[in-house]
Amino acid sequence: MEIEINNLSELPEKSMLFFNELNHRKVVAFDGQMGAGKTTFITSILKGLGIEDIEGSPTYSLVNVYDSVAYGKIYHFDLYRLNSETEAFDIGIEEMLYSGNYCFIEWPEKISNLLPENTIWAYIRSTEDNRRTISFEL
Asked: Which of 30, 32, 64, 72 has its CA 20 to 30 A from that of 80?
C-alpha cells in the first residue's frame, strides 16, 4: 500500500489512515533518510491516538514512552545514536518490542535482528516538490 502526503495539512488524516491499516500489528519500523519526515509522521500518529504531551524525537534518550487511555503504553524509538545492539539491550528494548504495545521505530536497521517477525516496515520517501510517500506491506 502507498499513502501520498502532498502537504502538512493532510498529515492528520493520512497518518490515521496508515494507523488504521496496521490491523492490530503493533511494531512499525520507519525507514527513511534524515529529514524524510519520520518523526513528524510518528508525532501525527501519536496526536491522532490522543497523546497530548508529545516530547518530540527521542534522539538522545533513544525512547519516549507515552501512556494512552485507549492504547496503553506507546513507545517511540529514535535509534540514530544507538551504537550497538548491546546498547539496545541495556535500555530493555526487547521487553518493549515484545510487550504487545505499539512501538514506532526510527532507524530500525540498527536493531533489525531484534525486531519481531511481524514488524511492519514503512518506507518514507520525499520528492523534489516536498511531498512524502509512505509505502508499506501488511
From this structure: 72
Q: Give the total residue count for the chain.
A: 138
Whole-number Å distance between alpha carbons of 15 and 112: 24
| Euclidean distance between CA atoms 50 and 71, whole angstroms | 9
The Cα 58–Cα 130 span in angstroms is 24
Q: pLDDT, tens digit, for every residue of 101-116?
A: 999 999 999 999 999 9
Question: Is the separation of the CB atoms in 27 and 116 below 8 Å?
Answer: yes
Instruction: Please say whether the beta carbons of 74 and 99 come within 8 A.
Output: no
- In three-state secondary structure terms, 38 is helix
- Dist CA 103 CA 122 (whole Å): 13
Is residue 137 included in any domain, yes or no? Answer: no
**CATH number of the domain within which 36 lies:** 3.40.50.300
Does pLDDT of 6 surpass 80? yes
> 40-96: per-residue pLDDT in tens?
999 999 999 999 888 877 777 899 999 999 999 999 999 999 999 999 999 999 999
Q: What is the total count of domains within the chain?
A: 1
Does pTM surpass 0.85?
yes
